[in-house]
């Protein structure tokens, strides 16, 4: 796991530029830095040494000097690939996975991507063909951004490196902001920065002869809803799942340094930790975050699982004021506004891992998307059930069962529940039906947009743009698979793996590894019948069947509790920080021009009097604050306006 930068085109004093760009992302690779230059091309690399400690320096060239790569991430099946290459006569100078990519590309060209099992982004310079290949892993674990200026092409693992390029400046993209305040994240290739783009997951890009072309090399697919399934025996499916997950975990334990694990107390991280503990010869270290708030804290389950596995366990407490204290740093690393505070405790958690002397952790991310674990999947099923009898006063009561951790919901009437969850408000053939309540609820935060911003976005609909990106086969899939696709293809890489994943871990030089996102496991899960994943209203049924013997019953049978953190409550009262008042003042909000100063002032006062409990006010408060911090961090607009 590392970070890299580069350019293609004639650049004045390219080495100095590369060193400056690489220094901007030094947190991603605190162990070493390297630079490669040739006529019209340059690559820079910041290394976090995990595999091939003594000989994996980058940028790395092959024996001919004609192929050079800068690589971020891991190829988990590099051992098997290297043996296959050796059997074909290939000779290796290093023990790194990086060199494996060079040999594979030399043999297979762009098709080498099809045999890589890993989380990666890389740039590979082919001097023979005068072309640059850029690629990103299938699920979007590792980031890659790019921009063009004056006929030159620049790229980097984080945008802050691109901002070192002369002429590249930070400016908010209003359409991206609308997408964040509707969908939680920009739709790639769009980013929060105007004229700076992100390579989409499972895509490769070719830069050659002054042109740039992009195409996918893999796609997430599901069977047609009426097609007979090849999985008819649940026990056999569970056994195959267990084998795939065990292998996915095994190859992710490969490292020349110790590998730890996050342990949230939920099903997914408990499974990965249970598998990993038998693969860690020196014992497994596990890490958790705890909260003072009983609504968010899962420490009892974390300790139960740690005791059951016998791990060396550590926890970092997220107390009143902690989220506010780190939130400006969180926004500096996310490089985008966010509408939830959930990344902040994970920022603290990765810091704990670094303090413990580790560089690598396994996490349970991806299981909810792959095996239908989120409440939104169950909610989609209940909404469709209610829609079949719109006048029913009985069916809406099922919504209460979905959210036992929200006590205020338990007292509501059937009419309120049906209305709140949009049970009868959308056509069931709407491709976004499963997510409309979420998108509608989040979009309500745009009531705080300024009149000027509203005018710019008058004819734009973020949800409709998302719908336009769906594949042609989408309409043929089962409703559960449609909902899973929306989560796995957009929110997972756009928010979970970026703002909560890569960016928070790499802020402290920590590599996260995700067994549930092994592409072979993902493909297998996609082929399973919907009822094996969501059985009635029991989420991740097949996963529970496959791993139940590994976990204490209190963990194995536990209902999904989504990871959340206190939102507006983190910034008011005893936990308030001075920058919050400054960022949300009418003068500061008016200076940025994106939000209505008086409406924001009322929201702030409302939260000071009583921290927001509703989703809209919480999301609006965090979204506005994070946007104001983003502007100050990357454009200086707040500080310039104050000085003026």
Automatic annotation (TrEMBL):
CDD domains: Asn_synthase_B_C (cd01991), AsnB (cd00712). The record marks 365 as: Important for beta-aspartyl-AMP intermediate formation. It comes from Bosea thiooxidans. The keyword Nucleotide-binding applies. GO terms for molecular function: asparagine synthase (glutamine-hydrolyzing) activity; ATP binding. This is asparagine synthase (glutamine-hydrolyzing). The lineage of its organism: Bacteria, Pseudomonadati, Pseudomonadota, Alphaproteobacteria, Hyphomicrobiales. NCBIfam families: asn_synth_AEB. It comes from the Bacteria. The keyword ATP-binding applies. GO terms for cellular component: cytosol. Residues 2-210 form the Glutamine amidotransferase type-2 domain. Gene3D superfamilies: Glutamine Phosphoribosylpyrophosphate, subunit 1, domain 1, HUPs.
């Amino acid at each position: 796991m590392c970070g890299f930068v580069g350019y293609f085109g004639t650049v004045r004093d390219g080495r100095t530029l590369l060193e400056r760009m690489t220094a901007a992302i030094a947190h991603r690779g605190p162990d070493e830095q390297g630079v490669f230059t040739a006529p019209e091309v340059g690559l820079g690399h910041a290394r976090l040494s995990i595999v091939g400690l003594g000989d994996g320096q980058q940028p790395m060239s092959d024996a001919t000097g004609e192929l050079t790569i800068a690589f971020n991430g891991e190829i988990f099946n590099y051992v098997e690939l290297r043996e296959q290459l050796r059997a074909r006569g290939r000779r290796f100078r290093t023990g790194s996975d990086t060199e494996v990519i060079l040999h594979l590309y030399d043999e297979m060209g762009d098709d080498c991507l099809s045999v890589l099992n890993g989380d990666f982004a890389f740039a590979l310079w082919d001097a023979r063909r005068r072309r640059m290949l850029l690629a990103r892993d299938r699920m979007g674990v590792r980031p890659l951004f790019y921009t063009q200026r004056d006929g030159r092409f620049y790229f980097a693992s984080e945008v802050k490196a691109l901002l070192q390029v002369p002429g590249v400046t930070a400016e908010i993209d209003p359409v991206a902001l609308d997408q964040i305040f509707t969908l939680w994240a920009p739709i790639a290739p769009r980013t929060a920065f105007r004229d700076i783009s992100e390579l989409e997951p499972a895509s490769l890009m070719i830069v050659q002869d002054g042109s740039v072309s992009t195409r996918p090399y893999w796609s997430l697919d599901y069977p047609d809803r009426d097609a007979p399934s090849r999985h008819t025996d649940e026990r056999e499916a569970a056994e195959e799942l267990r084998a795939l997950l065990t292998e996915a975990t095994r190859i992710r334990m490969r490292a020349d340094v110790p590998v730890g694990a996050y342990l949230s107390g939920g099903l997914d991280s408990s499974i990965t930790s249970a598998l990993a503990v038998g693969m860690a010869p020196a014992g497994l270290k596990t890490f958790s975050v705890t909260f003072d708030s009983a609504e968010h804290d899962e420490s009892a389950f974390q300790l139960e699982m740690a005791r059951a596995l016998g791990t060396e366990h550590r926890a970092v407490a997220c107390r009143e004021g902690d989220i506010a204290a780190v939130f400006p740093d969180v926004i500096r690393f996310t490089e985008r506004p966010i509408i939830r505070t959930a990344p902040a405790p994970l920022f603290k958690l990765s810091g704990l891992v670094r303090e413990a002397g580790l560089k690598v952790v396994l996490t349970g991310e991806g299981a909810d998307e792959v095996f239908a674990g989120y409440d939104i999947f169950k909610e989609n099923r209940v909404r469709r059930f209610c829609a079949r009898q719109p006048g029913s006063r009985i069916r809406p009561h099922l919504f209460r069962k979905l959210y036992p951790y929200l006590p205020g919901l338990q007292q509501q009437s059937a009419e309120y529940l049906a209305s709140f969850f949009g049970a009868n408000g959308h056509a069931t053939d709407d491709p976004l039906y499963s997510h409309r309540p979420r998108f509608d609820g989040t979009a309500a935060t745009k009531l705080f947009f300024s009149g000027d911003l509203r005018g710019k976005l008058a004819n734009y609909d973020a949800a409709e743009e998302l719908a336009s990106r769906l594949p042609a086969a989408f309409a043929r899939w089962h409703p559960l698979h449609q909902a899973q696709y929306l989560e796995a293809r957009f929110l997972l890489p756009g928010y979970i793996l970026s703002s909560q994943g890569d960016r928070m871990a790499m802020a402290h030089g920590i590599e996260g590894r995700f067994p549930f996102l092994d592409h072979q496991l993902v493909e297998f899960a996609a082929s399973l019948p919907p009822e094996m994943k969501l059985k009635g209203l029991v989420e991740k049924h097949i996963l529970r069947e496959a791993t139940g013997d590994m976990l204490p019953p209190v963990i194995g049978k536990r209902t999904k509790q989504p990871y959340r953190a206190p939102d507006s409550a983190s910034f008011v009262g005893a936990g308030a920080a001075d920058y919050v008042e400054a960022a949300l003042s009418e003068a500061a909000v008016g200076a940025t021009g994106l939000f209505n100063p008086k409406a924001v002032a009322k929201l702030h006062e409302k939260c000071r009097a009583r921290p927001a409990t509703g989703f809209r006010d919480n999301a609006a408060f965090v979204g506005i604050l994070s946007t104001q911090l983003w502007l100050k961090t990357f454009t200086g607009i707040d500080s310039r306006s104050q000085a003026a």
